[in-house]
Amino acid sequence: MTAHHLRPQSVAVVLGTRPELVKLAPLIHELGPAARLVHTGQHWDEAMSGRFLRELDLPEPELLTGVGGRPRAGQIAASLGQLDTAFDTDRPTAVIVQGDTNATLAGALAANARGIPLVHVEAGLRSHDRAMPEEHNRVMVDHIADLLCAATPANAANLRAERIPDRRISVTGNTVVEVVRRQLPSARRRHALLSRYALTPDRYVLATVHRPENTDTADALGAVLGELDRIARAGTAVLLPLHPRTRAAVERYALTALLERLQVVEPLGYADFLGLARHAALLVSDSGGVQEECTVLGRPLLVVRRSTERPEAVDAGFAALVSPGPELGLLAADWLADRDARLARLAATPSPYGDGHASERIARLTAALAVPELAAA
To answer: Which residues are in the UDP-N-acetylglucosamine 2-epimerase domain (predicted)?
Structure first.
């Protein structure tokens, strides 16, 4: 059976951040009228979240209130209470959550409390780093989900190692492949983007920094920005779309001088980011999504984090895990020196995240879970 068998607005897709909007967009399109989009407001502002909804051609969501800006426990509690009321008033046939955010956990707990079938997209990611709140979120969701959509065989193996039954696990691929292919701007638009920022293809670094481990202390953020400054001083342009959290931290820690040689711009729309990433000689980021996107774009990435739940990009040769400070600068210099050969090698390396049909598989499995009698017919 397919999503066409589902009644309108019957599958609640719960999310709360911009990366979730991006990753779930092809699945929401695949579900069509059956999708009921619920945004917890964990990361909500009209300038960024509203823009993503429009760019990704997504329906207006049900927006929860009073969630953003709270600490983790407050976000989960506020979201859970409102979701429970919403699911009591209009019970969905299934709930879909993605990844490992506070919205993911709240959506999963709300579904579990009401006995509603729960689908976890991108199940089985593990960093084995208990200092990461996201690790706790994803583990808890995996153990209560009814359908675990693992992006890769390694993710499925993580689930089996935790004794989750095979019957609940499906290897579907990652929706990121579809997202990147659909959202990557045309060659003409990419050329215009490069002209706008005065960049030469394959001759610049594109960087993003936003995770707490890199922005919550002056030492960590100074180490990252210091190495980006070093790259710029060596003659390679560095484009830095500055996340609001990072901008505030730069001002708080008096690190503005480290931005002087960088080309600092406002946060980019998703398609523009992909267009610029497609022609970067090197990506430097602490983002989870960029670790996946780089494998579809064929671009090298230095992951500025102490651990990663996405080792596939590293194992396939697209990425390396580095700590802030000299290690970042030294490896960046090495990779930039080897730029042409590295780009040619990655262009011929397939993404480890699947064939671009993940959302179709997940929608079909969700329909079978939501309406089992139709699946058996």
So the answer is: 35-364
Query: Among this protein's residues, is 210 annotated catalytic?
Result: yes
CB 197 within 8 A of CB 209: no
Q: In this predicted model, what pLDDT tens digit does every residue of 57-116 receive, in sequence order?
A: 999 999 999 898 899 999 999 999 999 999 999 999 999 999 999 999 999 999 999 999
Specify whether the CB–CB gap between 8 and 93 falls below 8 A: no
Q: How many CA atoms lie within 13 A of 136 on its CB side?
A: 9
pLDDT tens for each residue of 35-67 = 999 999 887 766 556 777 888 899 999 999 989
CATH architecture classification, 3-175+356-376: 3-Layer(aba) Sandwich (3.40)
Under 8 Å between Cβ of 139 and 346: no
For domain 185-347, is the CATH number 3.40.50.1950? no
Q: Which one from 5, 29, 210, 357 is the annotated catalytic residue?
A: 210
The pTM (predicted TM-score) of the whole model is 0.91
